[in-house]
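Consider today's protein:

***
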Amino acid sequence: MKTIGITTTVPIEVLLAAGYRVIDLNNLFITSEEYWKYIEIAERDGFPKSSCAWIKGIYGAVLENKITEVIGVIEGDCSNTKALIEVLKQNGIKVYPFAYPHSHSLIDVKKTIKDFMDLFGVSETKVESIRKRLNDIRKIAKRIDELTYIEGKVNGFENHLYQVSLSDFNGDIDEFEEMLLKKLHEMEKRSPVKRKVRLGYIGVPPMTGDLYKFVEKFDSHIIYNEVQREFAFPRAEKAKDIYEQYYDYTYPYDINFRLEKIKEEIKKRKIDGIIHYTQAFCYRAIEDIIIKKELDIPVLNIEGDKLNHLDARTKFRIEAFLDMISDLKGC
């Protein structure tokens, strides 16, 4: 089976219909025990130190793992991806650009996905059949999410992990479904854990995975992972076809569309505060201005760079933020 890398979530149904094994290059990079080597490869080849660690990590992951085909999302994700795929092409990688339409019009989304199907020579019927199969797996992740914020049986990191993994289903949908079902059955048997501060996490998935365990030291629980949840398409069953499903996907579109869903989840989950994660040198950090004006609960912006763990300064800021929320709640 052919392997293809993706720089972020794309209509994976199309690629599976075309017979590909799909690998999310972000996951390949950040789960590596020697993730920093991928960054070093990119910097050795000329990527500036002031460029995003994710972009450099993706580049290194492609070369080190001998990925020969890549889907590069050039609109609706990282603004540096256009330059990344140009460098990948120079290295002999076959690159297919994909763009979520800035207009966020259903007509334009439909045209984009139809063109994507034509590019890989697959029919809408086959794509819809695979979409139904994947949405059955996505329902399992949705149940895990419910066990997080309703029943308190799943911790924040698990919530993050099992939703972010739906960007590529760990490269094997059958094995992933089996693993996810086993994990769900184990989670359902747990005793609930109630913590006094209920947190939401918004922004790109973090380089610093220890964030989730760190906040738990202060009787706090991350019960909402915004972008990871979007990767899992929690509203997929409401979409009549693949076009509506990717039209309703918030991540690639404007901040106001994202904020609509964020506000809904804050209310539904009774969230006390938001941690907004941004990556160093990323344009999305500017969106924090809008987020803080639009949300009526406390928001803390933290920034990651090359480290895969929290630094001392960020830990101090998070602790102070959680103390403030506890004081506001009177607990």
Observations:
- The CA atoms of residues 208 and 310 lie 6 Å apart.
- The chain has two domains: 2-120, 124-329.
- The longest helix spans residues 124-149.
- The chain has a mean pLDDT of 94.
